[in-house]
């Protein structure tokens, strides 16, 4: 099967690189391959590209350039923000507040903090996947170091009330760090970090048509945390190691195209998702997760009653369509989704969910095509 014949609906896991991103990567590797920390002409050329990219990226998110640090991806940024304030913390009663439906990068970091003896509060959600603001606020006290709540869930697409949470947190403690993993949200959402009221955020390049292995950590200038990697003075003296300038340039190019065409892109994506869901609902016994609340345009998590998701996923793959059961970062664990468990999905249905996620490369008619493949596959299983 040719690559172009395969219907890819797993954009929430990773997106194909945009052509502008690919060209920016190649051009930078060819013309500015030198170490950006060096002292000669080619190093200065690389440094200029790095800082120009930082300026452009910061502008897209309403941030100052000095508030943008380039990382290896969203996972590194999440680990950095959540772990480092607890390293050698003089307050042994320090606490972390997060949710039970976070990405594995946040949950793993929170569990590490907990292993050090600090208290971690894992806040639940309602049956639609929404975290209640009051449930978060009720766990915040004078010992709380960080609150970390994702902007939108990577499995369900359900959007959380980040701005409302921020406003309430500021009433309690102006110095509290409010972190948000916006890795999934940024794919179809225009974000202004300061307008949202968050102090830190994590972004991955490959979720928006950029390259893998490069990401962004937003850290408000009002927040100071220790470095995560040591051995050099790169990245505003925050992160040691030779900077992936080609990856940064590629990410900047992808973000520029995405932000410029986001309204048109989202309109296309939403139509395909709606066409897909309507056909599926009209013909099968299914439920769409988060259908009654705000969710990202590109994610459709569907419960197929009486069908095991693994079996259906394999059948769809054989029919030329790629989807997932949930987070790619946890897919190898072979255990029920912690997100669906938090949403109180019953044991007999929790393994009946598949995530279909559309993206910038989705074509007109893909929603209908995908629905027909699902119908054919389900019929073949009966």
From TrEMBL:
InterPro entries: Aminotrans_V_dom, Cysteine_dSase, PyrdxlP-dep_Trfase, PyrdxlP-dep_Trfase_major, PyrdxlP-dep_Trfase_small. Keywords: Pyridoxal phosphate. The keyword Heme does not apply. Residues 8-364 form the Aminotransferase class V domain. Gene3D superfamilies: 1.10.260.50, Aspartate Aminotransferase, domain 1 (3.90.1150.10), Type I PLP-dependent aspartate aminotransferase-like (Major domain) (3.40.640.10). It holds the Pfam family Aminotran_5. Its cofactor is pyridoxal 5'-phosphate. It comes from the Bacteria. This is Cysteine sulfinate desulfinase/cysteine desulfurase. It comes from Candidatus Actinomarina minuta.
């Amino acid at each position: 099967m040719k690559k172009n014949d395969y219907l890819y609906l797993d954009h929430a896991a990773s997106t194909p690189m945009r052509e502008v991103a690919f060209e920016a990567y190649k051009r930078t590797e060819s013309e500015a391959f030198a170490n950006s920390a060096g002292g000669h002409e080619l190093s200065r050329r690389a440094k200029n590209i790095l800082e120009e990219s930082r300026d452009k990226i910061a502008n897209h998110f309403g941030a100052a350039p000095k508030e943008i640090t380039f990382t290896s991806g969203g996972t590194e940024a999440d680990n950095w923000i959540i772990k480092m304030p607890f390293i050698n913390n003089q307050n042994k009663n320090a606490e972390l507040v997060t949710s039970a439906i976070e990405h594995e990068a946040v949950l793993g970091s929170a569990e590490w903090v907990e292993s050090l003896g600090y208290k971690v509060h894992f806040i639940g959600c309602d049956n639609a996947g929404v975290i209640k603001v009051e449930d978060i606020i009720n766990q915040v006290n004078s010992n709380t170091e960080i609150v970390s709540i994702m902007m939108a869930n990577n499995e369900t697409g359900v959007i959380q009330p980040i701005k409302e949470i921020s406003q309430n947190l500021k009433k309690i403690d102006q110095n509290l760090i409010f972190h948000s993993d916006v890795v999934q949200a940024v794919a179809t959402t225009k974000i202004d970090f300061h307008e949202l009221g968050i102090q830190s955020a994590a972004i991955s390049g490959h979720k928006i048509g950029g390259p893998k292995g490069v990401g962004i950590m937003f850290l408000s200038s009002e927040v100071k945390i220790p470095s995560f990697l040591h051995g050099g003075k790169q990245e505003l003296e925050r992160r040691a190691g030779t900077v992936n300038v080609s990856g940064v340039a590629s990410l900047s190019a992808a973000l520029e195209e995405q932000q410029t065409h986001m309204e048109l892109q989202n309109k296309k994506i939403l139509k395909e998702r709606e066409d897909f869901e309507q056909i599926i609902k009209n013909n099968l016994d299914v439920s769409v997760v988060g259908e009654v609340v705000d969710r990202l345009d590109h994610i459709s998590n569907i419960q197929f009653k009486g069908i095991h998701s693994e079996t259906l996923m394999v059948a769809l793959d054989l029919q030329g369509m790629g989807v997932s059961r949930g987070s790619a970062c946890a897919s190898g664990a072979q255990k029920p989704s912690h997100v669906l468990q938090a949403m109180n999905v019953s044991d007999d249905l929790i393994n009946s969910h598949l995530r279909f996620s559309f993206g910038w490369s989705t074509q007109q008619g893909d929603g209908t095509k995908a629905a027909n493949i699902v119908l054919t596959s389900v019929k073949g299983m009966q």
